[in-house]
């Protein structure tokens, strides 16, 4: 049941987007109580359906699927019928596509003046890159993600999650909630222009701004911290050491100083000192952590107040006691699929999630001649 307090109770969102940013944004709002109707292309559906049932399920469980050919008169009419009593439409086409289909903001507002149209695109609706193709790596590169020095032995490597897409989906969901609340108060909808590039730029800009002063000497950047890094262990695994405050360095020295007296070097006793001797500090720690396996280091650090973490494998992650205790993850009927709970706990509770994954067009299919 939906908690009565939910501000998204009775909110209806039409999701005509695909892949990650739009579907994830609407999935978040669905978890907060909204109804989401997914509009897909007949016979094809969301591109993520082609990547396997688990991929589609992760962002689209609990939604209703309609298959409308938006290039046909009949499909557009069916779409506009949904708009009449909806609160928002989320689309992920390139700029101008909705307008060319006759479904731009002005056309939707004629049907429903309180409608909110959220357009999620790579570079936004305006600007010299607006029509450019792109995916997560492109937005990261152009937002200066790799311009910020962060390691003594720095390197460019591909992130393991689609960071830009998730940044954009989070901002889109927040903006949609605010815009829908506003429209319900004053009866006026609006057009939200969500740029994936803008979203990740809002995360990278401060670090990149500071990095300008260290372009020729990146190791001198305060963002490079020799004791706050990832280190390899004897068995080829990795651990994360998050030391920032000197109190944690003191704890590390007390725990390991007898076996590794180099840690007690007076030059390293303060943060400014460790920053002045980054290669030495990092090299010292790298050598220390290579002397034991990850399991051995985990045992050493378990009772200590030190920000140490083993880098978990995929199997270890889902068996981790904290992950299990927080109950964030549950399996879905689809092979290989899981469902994630909303990552914020509400003391009054949230609506119980519907784990059902819609078949393409199961709530209606409308095709027709293009026109």
TrEMBL record:
Protein name per Swiss-Prot or TrEMBL: CaiB/BaiF CoA-transferase family protein
Source organism per UniProt: Cupriavidus basilensis
């Amino acid at each position: 049941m939906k908690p009565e307090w939910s501000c998204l109770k009775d909110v209806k969102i039409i999701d005509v987007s695909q892949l990650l940013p739009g579907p994830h944004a609407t999935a978040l709002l669905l978890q907060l109580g909204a109804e989401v109707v997914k509009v897909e292309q007949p016979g094809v559906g969301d591109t993520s359906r082609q990547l396997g049932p688990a991929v589609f399920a992760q962002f689209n469980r609990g939604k209703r699927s309609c298959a409308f050919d938006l290039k046909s008169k009949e499909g557009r009419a069916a779409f506009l019928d949904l708009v009449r009593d909806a609160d928002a439409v989320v689309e992920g086409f390139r700029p101008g596509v909705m307008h060319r289909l006759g479904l731009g903001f002005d056309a939707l507002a004629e049907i429903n003046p309180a409608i909110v149209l959220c357009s999620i695109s790579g570079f936004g609706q305006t600007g010299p890159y607006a029509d450019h193709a792109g995916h997560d790596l492109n937005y990261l590169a152009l937002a200066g993600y790799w311009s910020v020095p962060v390691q003594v032995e720095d390197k460019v490597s591909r992130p393991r999650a689609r960071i830009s897409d998730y940044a954009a989906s989070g901002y889109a969901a927040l903006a949609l909630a605010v815009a829908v609340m506003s429209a319900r108060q004053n009866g006026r909808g609006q057009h939200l222009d969500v740029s994936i590039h803008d979203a990740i730029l809002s995360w990278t800009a401060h670090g990149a701004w500071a990095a300008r002063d260290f372009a020729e000497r990146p190791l001198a950047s305060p963002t490079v911290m020799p004791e706050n890094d990832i280190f390899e262990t004897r068995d080829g695994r990795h651990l994360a050491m998050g030391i920032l405050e000197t109190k944690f360095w003191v704890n590390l020295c007390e725990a390991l100083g007898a076996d590794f007296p180099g840690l007690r070097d007076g030059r390293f006793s303060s943060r400014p000192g460790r920053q002045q001797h980054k290669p030495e500090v990092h090299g010292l720690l790298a050598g220390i952590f290579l002397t034991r396996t990850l399991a051995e280091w985990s045992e050493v650090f378990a009772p200590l107040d030190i920000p140490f973490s083993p880098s978990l494998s995929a199997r270890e992650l889902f068996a981790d006691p904290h992950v299990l205790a927080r109950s964030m993850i549950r399996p879905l009927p689809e092979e290989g699929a899981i469902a994630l709970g909303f990552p914020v706990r509400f003391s009054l509770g949230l609506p119980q999630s519907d784990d059902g994954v819609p078949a393409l067009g199961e709530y209606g299919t409308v095709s027709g001649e293009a026109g």
